[in-house]
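Intended use. Records such as the Aspartate kinase entry shown here are meant for training and evaluating sequence-to-structure methods. They are not intended to support clinical decisions.
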Amino acid sequence: MPQLDYPNADYRMANLKVHGERLNAILIAKILQHQGIKTRFLQPGLIVTGTPNNAEVNPETYVNLKRVKLNDDERVIFSGFYDITPSGHIATFSRGGSDITGAVLARGLNAALYENFTDVDAIFSANPHIIDQPKPIKKMTYI
């Protein structure tokens, strides 16, 4: 359980962001349940080190995830981009933290496939934060 005393304003802000993320995940699970879809909200119990906006996954996380029992007939909803440090504080990942959470869960739960869809319109030939208007890659294959 996270502590309610905060070392500084960054920890307080992380706590506020996390509550929104967690409540949205719970709400989505409830909506799916109401629609008759077997769904469970999962608080995965990631253990992180670091500080707000700079968390890193603690290897103990993967030990905890091995204990999670999933049913083949259920959908699992979890909240992303954060979890709790060994000292009981909430720490958040840097930008893209929900993507990090998805990859950690895929690894820890032995997913056969992890797909990550983002809100950008394309995969670009260069970083658009460095190169002005890079060309999108129109077709990509792999072997």
